[in-house]
Write a structure and sequence with these properties.
- The structure is a single chain.
- By secondary structure, this protein is α/β, with parallel strands linked by helices.
- It has a single domain, classed as 2-Layer Sandwich (Nucleotidyltransferase, domain 5), CATH 3.30.420.
- The chain is 41% helix and 17% strand.
- The chain has a six-stranded mixed β-sheet, with helices on both faces.
- A hairpin with a 4-residue loop joins strand 3 and strand 4.
- Helix 2 crosses helix 7, helix 3 packs parallel to helix 6 and helix 4 packs across helix 6.
- It is globular and about 45 Å long.
Length: 204
């Protein structure tokens, strides 16, 4: 694993191909209160690129262009939160997207364990440590352990997607999954607009 740390934006010239794994680290889990601290990316080649932001400084044209590019599929685990954070702080609508958590829920119906750690363990036999999950991502200096944790969240998403795609196709749920992925930017916008916990499709 090689980690490349970038301040404020991706450098120009990085080619992620037609799909890139993406994750973020934030100061907390409130869309309205907490800020975006890191964005992690990987082409699935063992390298991770981590973009670090100072508070209030989100002028990142190269990263924004990648997230909004129609020619690059963005692979997330729980895309709903990241896509909302990117729209709020970076001002971009991230699409097209693929969410391994949604794919897991549609295909692995024999379990209720759909966290990245559980999915990685079952499908790839890889253990991902979550010890740094609740650390201070806004700190002036990030520890090697924090950077390794942040990178681990994107390094295996391509391989997980490949396994989940096989399961979705096997169960005839791949078209349904794609429809869910296409709706994710709208679901994120509903979260930002004040409907995070309300099912607007419910009768009552």
């Amino acid at each position: 694993m090689t980690i490349h740390l970038h301040q404020g934006d991706l450098p120009s010239g990085i080619d992620f191909g037609t799909s890139v794994a993406v994750d973020s680290e934030t100061l907390g889990l409130s869309l309205g209160r907490d800020r975006l601290c890191l964005v992690q990316l990987s082409a699935g080649d063992g390298d991770a690129h981590i973009v670090r932001f100072e508070r209030g400084n989100y002028d990142a044209p190269n990263l924004k262009a990648l997230l909004s590019s129609q020619n690059v599929l963005k692979i997330f685990h729980f895309a709903r939160f990241d896509v909302a954070m990117f729209e709020r702080h970076l001002g971009v609508v991230t699409r097209p997207v693929y969410c391994t958590k949604i794919a897991s829920r549609l295909s692995r119906t024999y379990t209720d364990r759909h966290g990245l750690k559980d999915v990685s363990r079952e499908l790839l036999g890889i253990e991902i440590s979550k010890t740094q999950q609740s650390s201070d991502w806004g700190a002036d200096v990030l520890s090697p352990e924090q950077l390794a944790y942040a990178a681990s969240d994107v390094l295996h998403l391509h391989a997980i997607k490949a396994r989940l795609d096989q399961m979705l196709e096997r169960e005839g749920r791949d078209e349904l999954a794609r429809a869910c992925f296409d709706f994710l930017p709208t679901r994120a916008r509903l979260d930002l607009a004040g409907w995070p916990d309300i099912d607007i499709f419910a009768h009552a």
